[in-house]
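Reopening: structure tokens for the uridine-diphosphate-N-acetylglucosamine complex, inputs below.
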Amino acid sequence: MRILVTGGTGYIGSHTVLALQEAGHEVVVIDNLVNSSEESLRRVAELSGKPAVFHRVDLVDEAAVDAVFAEHAINAVVHFAGLKAVGESVREPLMYYHNNLVGTLNLLRVMDRHDVRSLVFSSSATVYGEHNPIPYIEKMEIGANNPYGRTKEQIEDILSDLGAADDRWHIALLRYFNPVGAHPSGRIGEDPQGIPNNLVPFIAQVAVGRREKLMVFGGDYDTPDGTCLRDYIHVVDLAEGHVAALNHVAGRAGVFRWNLGSGKGTSVLEVLRSFGKAVGAPLPYEVAERRTGDLPAFWADASSALADLSWSTTKTVDEMCEDHWRWQKNNPLGYLS
Ligand code: NAD
Ligand code: UD1
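Re-run output (same inputs, fresh job):
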């Protein structure tokens, strides 16, 4: 198939472009490069031996998106493009609603006009909100508690309405848990701009000497070691989850929801120790105040993806840290290195 990947120069997008090419698909990428660089695709091409077609296009520009569909006979879309920083979304809600919602609506209208109705969408575990018991199961009521999360929930609603109104749509909503790690080659990985918000990118910058120590946000939670538990998933496993979801929806109309996670919780201190093992020395940290909005613990019930897609995670937290470290060590300043 010829797959359009929006946001394909980004972290998860670039790994998924590679996985799609390895599965034999042709890939066309659109991205406005607001949080990524085209260098990631050059490196993906090095790894796959097959360059992806790239168009620098903003999804908010419907005519430009339409022109890409007019130029290429697209069979299906994997839609990553969006802004994703929770704190920024609280400060700049209009920017988040405009970019994520208008961008998605434009994409859907263009797809419909060009008779392309297979879509895999990047949702997030954040849609489960604060009140659901763990582990999270796809059939639970959702209710995000920040503007970023609400854009994901609202897009899920739009896509559910679309699937209910027109049975020609084939839609997968993938709720990712905590993606970390990098391709084992060390050539592509996560390249956050500024101070990383997320745990593993921050630890990686401590390990490479760009930050002094990890601040552990809260050591007094009701968890085995007092720090929060999350469900970390290797980005290569996550990328394979997209290939599996695409194969599944290609043959079936409807709207499907799957958690993509390992089904296990790992604490902040366990991740830190694992990363230290990869580096070969323990990493400095200090226990600080809790971060507002953090939940003590959550992880996926990963059984639906296994049953429906025959997909499950294969890589351990140690492997996530080893691969993340290889990427960071070889590219201390990310793609600028
Ligand atoms: P990323 O920022 O690396 O990738 C997103 C890409 O979208 C970037 O390359 C950015 O330039 C592009 N983009 C943003 N707005 C655009 C627009 N209007 N038009 C065209 N391109 C645009 O982020 P990522 O970590 O690879 O995340 C990919 C998707 O997965 C996002 O939708 C994110 O919300 C979702 N997600 C990520 C995580 C995570 O922890 N990384 C967790 C759950 C869900
Ligand atoms: C964050 C997002 C969430 C998103 C998820 C996956 C917030 C509030 N939530 O959640 O919406 O779905 O990423 O992308 O941003 N930690 C530290 N020190 C640090 C950084 C993190 O101790 O410098 C801790 C956090 O308190 C948390 C754990 O590490 O307990 C994981 O944090 P993070 O990587 O930000 O992921 P989430 O909290 O799951």
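The pocket of nicotinamide-adenine-dinucleotide (ligand 1) is lined by residues 7, 9-13, 31-36, 58-60, 80-84, 99, 103, 122, 124, 176, 179 (CB under 6 Å). The mean pLDDT is 97. Marking as resolved unless the reporter disagrees.
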